[in-house]
Structures are given as structure tokens and as C-alpha cells.
Amino acid sequence: MMNLIVFLLGVHLTLVLMGNAYRLLDLFWCWQKSYPKVVTRLLLMMALIATIYWLLSPAQQNWFRNGQLFAVIFHIGNFYLLQFILEMLHRSHYPTVRRNDE
């Protein structure tokens, strides 16, 4: 049962990452000649992938049996924090266009 929960968690995180793939590509290619921003996005992407692989590694499947649920919650929160940062960076790149209804 716990292996199923870990598997579903991994599938969910992978789908969330795939859902943000277009934003990652857009942020990477649209900021031309902006070295620090590109490096920041690459580091965020590597952190997201490392978190997913670490969560899905066979050594971590004993979390629930060993009572280390806090570690699971911490890493899920870390993943969503990185996703939130990515969303804010995407919004700062595409500010909302307001119509003038005069």
C-alpha cells in the first residue's frame, strides 16, 4: 500500500513538472543575453529533478515504515515552493495586460 502511495506521489510530481515544461522553455529562450536569469532557471530545474529522483529512490520507500513522514512533507513542500517561485518568475516576465475601457 505504501509503495502505491509513493508511486502516485511520484506520478503527481512528474505531471506537475511536465505541466511547467512550456514555462521553463519559454523562460529559458525568451530572456536573451541574460546570463544570471538563465543560470537561476537551470538551477531551479536541476533542483526540481533532483527532488523528484530523490523522492522516488528505493532507499526512500521506507519513510512510512520508519515514521519519517516529516521528511516526505518537507520535500513535497520544497517542491511546491520551487514551483511557486517559477510561477512568480513567469508572471514577472509576462505582466498582466490591462485594457483601457474608457
What can be said about this structure in brief?
The chain has helices spanning 2-19, 21-30, 35-56, 63-66, 69-93. It has 102 residues and is mainly alpha-helical. The relative contact order is 0.15.
Structure report:
The protein contains five helices and no strands. With 102 residues, it is an all-alpha fold. The protein has one domain (2-6, 16-93). Helix 1 (2-19) runs antiparallel to helix 3 and helix 3 runs antiparallel to helix 5 (69-93). The chain is elongated.
Q: Using the alpha-carbon principal axes, give the shape.
A: elongated
> How many helices?
5
N- to C-terminal distance: 60 Å
Radius of gyration using CA atoms only? 17 Å
Let me know the average pLDDT. 65
Number of strands: 0
Order of helices and strands: HHHHH
Work out the strand percent: under 5%
Helix/strand/pairing class, anyone? mainly alpha
Total count of domains: 1
Helix content: over 70%
